[in-house]
Write a structure and sequence with these properties.
The complex is a heterodimer of chains A (387) and B (134). By secondary structure, chain A is of the alpha/beta class. Chain A has 13 helices and 11 strands. In chain A, β10 and β11 form a beta hairpin. In chain A, α6 crosses α10. The radius of gyration of chain A is 19 Å and the shape is globular. Chain B is globular and about 45 Å long. By secondary structure, chain B is mainly beta. Chain B is built from 1 helix and 9 strands.
């Protein structure tokens, strides 16, 4: 590994995952406040220290209402919403703003309660010019990921059993997480025998639906030095929007081809240097495609890579989603990017559960896929380092 | 080709971006984008070319012949249906439903042709069905 000559380093000083998985009596605004407080307390900072605020999903006009609700006086705000990868994107943007001297303490929050409310998405929020040509065909999130899986199977011979290994690995980790929604260890057979939702994806290929949220605090080097917490540096970051290019889809790969290469190059590392990866797992196929696109294995070989047990901590070469991920632990507000960064930070601090903690975890990767992998989505990748 | 079938699909949301497409569909025509400047065909059609941004584009008539690029059977609804991308003979792919088919015999690469489904408000929606023997 070569040391990067990045003068504008930023550090993740605070990370907090809300413990709830069903927020019947909590409002979304209240959840934002609770995760903000949690992450700031984790960092050893207060709300008055915050001078930049990032959110994708807050109620109100962009970030404005929640900024008032929390009592923040931000000089930088960003409510870019690219779905579940938004929070990795926000870390990238906050790092740039800190490097440019525009702010020194950036707060990023996510909160939602789809489980309590019994609904998944507000479709009208996402109605771009594409939707007018597609809505009669009753597209859906799982349908779009299922089509990517079907095409991956067609092109590369990937099997349902191979995809199932991803859920198996997540469940092996989730058994050690007392807050995980699903703590039972499952087998490949249980995954492929669970009810078919959208061919070839079974129920156990799909993530959980949970309430709650999480928050991150990204700070300048000066602030990081003043705090008592282990220093987790944002060493590389990348983002990329991929779409179907005027009707020429290539749905077996994702924007991770670009976002991952950007993040790794900026960090000056290769996939071999990554000790642990937290990868967006809305569905098993989301992980398989990301593993290939990020360079952990060749394109088309993801099925073999995961079925060799490579994702299981203590067994394979790339422990992934050691909290149980979205497949077993938590997928708050149908947006899994935040929890990927939080578990990556835990690993780098050595604060993951002892049964899943990766020894000497000094460089780790977090990756998000927001939107619909078979049509329009935004990939975002972070390479984080313990200093 | 160009028969009409009854379905329970929702009607299209017609707006300034797509009204030419849906008006053509009601005449049992499938329209795609065709750039006069860079010659590329594209879908969805729009008022400019997504490859060169030229406004010199046609809403060209497609043959309705296509092959399945990928598909899934949406199982967790009262009436399961097939969501698919089909690649049109003219080049671009479009999202659609595959109808009048045996779910278990569908495959990527299968040859399909356009049919027109009547949506809930009576407007027509292009869909595709397998051609016998393919």
């Amino acid at each position: 590994m070569t040391r990067p000559s990045n003068p504008g380093a930023a550090y993740i000083a605070g990370a907090f995952e809300h413990p709830t998985r069903l927020a019947t009596g909590l409002s979304i605004a209240q959840l934002h406040a609770e995760v903000a407080r949690g992450a700031l307390e984790d960092a050893g900072l207060g709300i008055a220290d915050v001078d930049a605020f990032y959110t994708a999903d807050a109620p109100g006009l962009g970030p404005i209402a929640i900024v008032e609700h929390l009592g923040i006086k931000p000089q930088i705000v960003d409510s870019t919403d690219v779905g579940g990868s938004s929070y990795l994107l926000h870390v990238n943007h906050a790092t740039q703003a800190i490097a440019a001297g525009k702010c020194s303490v950036a707060l990023i929050t996510l909160a939602g309660r789809p489980r309590a409310e019994g609904k998944i998405t507000v479709a009208s929020r996402f109605a771009g010019p594409d939707v007018g040509f597609e809505s009669p065909y009753r597209s859906s999130v799982v349908g779009m990921y299922a089509m990517a899986a079907a095409r991956h199977m067609h092109e590369f011979g990937t099997t349902g059993e191979q995809l199932a290994w991803i859920k198996v690995a997540a469940s092996v980790h989730a058994q050690h997480n007392p807050l995980a929604l699903l703590r039972n260890v499952v087998t490949v057979e249980e995954v492929v025998n669970s009810p078919m939702v959208a061919d070839p994806l079974h129920r156990l290929d799909c993530c959980v639906i949970t309430d709650g949220g999480g928050a991150l605090v990204v700070v300048s080097p000066e602030i990081a030095r003043s705090l008592a917490r282990p220093k987790v540096r944002v060493r590389g970051a990348g983002e990329f929007v991929k779409h179907i290019r005027g009707g020429y889809p290539d749905i077996t790969s994702s924007g991770a081809v670009v976002s991952g290469a950007q993040a790794l190059a900026e960090a000056g590392v290769t996939p071999k240097d990554i000790k642990c990866a937290c990868i967006y797992d809305s569905f098993t196929i989301s992980v398989l495609i990301a593993l290939e696109d990020l360079g952990f294995c060749e394109k088309g070989k993801g099925g073999q890579f995961v079925s060799e047990g490579n994702l299981i901590s203590g067994v394979g070469r790339l422990p992934f989603n050691t909290d149980g991920g979205g497949l077993c632990n938590n997928h708050p507000s149908n947006r899994g990017g935040m929890t990927k960064v939080i578990e990556t930070v835990r690993q780098l601090r050595g604060e993951a559960h002892p049964r899943v903690q990766v020894p000497n975890c000094d460089i780790a990767l977090a990756h998000g896929t927001g939107g619909w992998i078979a049509s329009r989505h935004c990939s975002a990748t972070l390479v984080l380092e313990r200093e | 080709m160009a028969e009409t079938i009854q379905t329970d699909v929702p009607p299209p949301n017609v707006d300034l971006d797509n009204e030419q497409f849906w008006a053509a569909a009601n005449r049992r025509q499938l329209r795609i984008g065709q750039c006069t400047k860079c010659q590329k065909a594209f879908f969805y059609p729009r008022h400019f070319c997504p490859f060169c941004l030229s406004a010199d584009v046609d809403w060209a008539l497609a043959s309705g012949k296509a092959q399945i690029y990928s598909y899934t059977v949406m199982r967790r609804v009262d009436n399961p249906y097939v969501l698919a991308y089909v690649q049109l003979d003219e080049g671009p792919a479009m999202m659609t439903n595959i109808v009048e088919c045996d779910f278990e015999s569908l495959r990527v690469g299968q040859i399909v042709e356009a049919v027109y489904a009547t949506s809930k408000n009576g407007s027509l929606v292009p869909m595709f069905r397998p051609i016998d023997g393919h």
